[in-house]
Write the structure tokens for this entry.
Amino acid sequence: MAKVATREELIHFLQNKATDLRRKIIELSVIAGGGHLGGALSAIDILVVLYYHVLRIDPKNPRWEERDRFILSKGHGALALCPVLADRGFFPEELLSNFNRLDSPFGMHPDRNKVPGVEMSTGSLGHGLGVAIGVALSGRLDRANWRVYCLLGDGECHEGSVWEAAMAAAHYKLGNLCAIVDRNMFCIDGPTEKIMALEPFKRKWEAFGWNAIEVDGHDFAQLIEAFEGLPPVTSTVPTVVIAKTVKGKGVSFMEGVGAWHYGGLDSEKERRALEDIEKMRPKG
Amino acid sequence: MAEGISYTVYELYKDLTQTEVYGQTLVELAKKDERIVALTADLARSTKIGVFFDAFPERAFNFGVAEQNMMAAAAGFAISGKLPYVSTFAVFASMRTAEFVRTDIAYPNLPVRIIATHAGVSFGQAGTTHHCTEDLGILRTMANMTIVVPADSIETAQFVKASVDWPGPLYCRIGRGLEPLAYMEEDYGFRIGKSVLMREGQDLTVIACGVAVLPACEVADELAGEGISLRVINMHTIKPIDREAIIAAAEETGGIITVEEHNIIGGLGSAVAEVLAEEGIATKFKRLGIPDVYSVIGYPEDLYHRYGIDYEGILKAVKEMLEMKGVR
């Protein structure tokens, strides 16, 4: 973790980190023989802001009592989360070299009992926010001052259980809970608004009693501001950050193409993808 | 009743349903163990976890009619160092939320205690939607899951006490009404995973669980008067199953009848059959239970009779098998 003096330096650092991690996502997808590239690339900037600026965590003590909790409800984002955890020092990056292979701790969806830093085993959609409710209620019981963050996919919000959890969070006044939705506008079969419309999305969360904020999910300044501006842990309203993102962000031939929800790269596509990503690196 | 048996315990429990005993025992345990939290989905009163809600309102959580979220939240409590006891009807605990139980609780091997009430046909008059004759089969295929079916209120109390220190997830199914007690006392050495020999016998064995244990014992007592010795085993833990007791029963008595308030497919009978087949033991064998149909509407006692898992049904099956064995 670099020491940064100013907001500009912080954003520069995070952009640089996001570029590194986008590269790692591409490389890991090649090791893995394919992966959820679209959703990993749409979520990575959110993960970078959380893991390199917002979350209070101790990679040397993954189950540190006072840590902030992060639950990857869109478990298919493991392709993005695992390189982040490795880079933050939860485990050596070399371990990722057997991703998806027999007996590997690492696969398409994260396993809490196998990967240090993974708070909850996820993959089936519509579970993480409910789990986060139990964690947040436990935090309240213990009068803890840590927060629970939960990253959902937007297609995931088709699941009724997401709204059961949304109802419960408001009912139990869980101001220590922050949901983030990676609003990349796509589920597997196509655009969310064509498959099963989610809009008016923000108003749905507000109607369920949440403090709903919309940001550009690739704008570091906006993401930082949203997380830094969260109401105190002791507040009585849960917050959802609806992060408007682009599926496949950073790779020209993937951006906004639903088919890249899951895919594999040959060496030519890998080269082009890395070339595109390098263009995102901040100057200086 | 034999001499020296304490009547106090019997008196204490005889007027309490399994659900009431569950709620009261948990309250007692929670006084000493701050990790315990209770969850329900708009069934606090029906499942009798309501007494916990009165005693520890801060540690009791009602999720409304939203069982999936309740199971997910239970997992969230468990990964946060709490010991969640989740109560709802068996039909919802096992089927409405099956994938939440499997993915959030069984797969990560979390210490969540699912107390499924109104199991089997114990809420018979509520109709088939509220019967639950599939749960043992479903839960048995979830790795890490331990499944217990207490025989009565006394055993329910023993189970709840034993559950506190059990390392992984637990599914316990209990009834609804006031079932007569199968036990006279409580210090019979209840251990999760270890069956209880209720009646010693050499001619035949009945392996029962839950509400079928008492009538099986009564059949044994009746037949004892006719010079027939019927072994009765209370197989309160369906998984992991007590293989040794099954093997010994087959080898020593040459015939096994299983009795359960569940579809004959997937539950106790299937679990016993698996052990027998794998051990290569040839023995007479019969499963009593709901014969792969949707159980009809009716009061529980009438349904137990209809499906042959009451005293008369067990007696009939035992006599038929004894005849096949040429015992009489």
Q: What stands out?
A: Chain A touches chain B through 32 residues (CB under 8 Å). Chain A has one domain: 7-278.
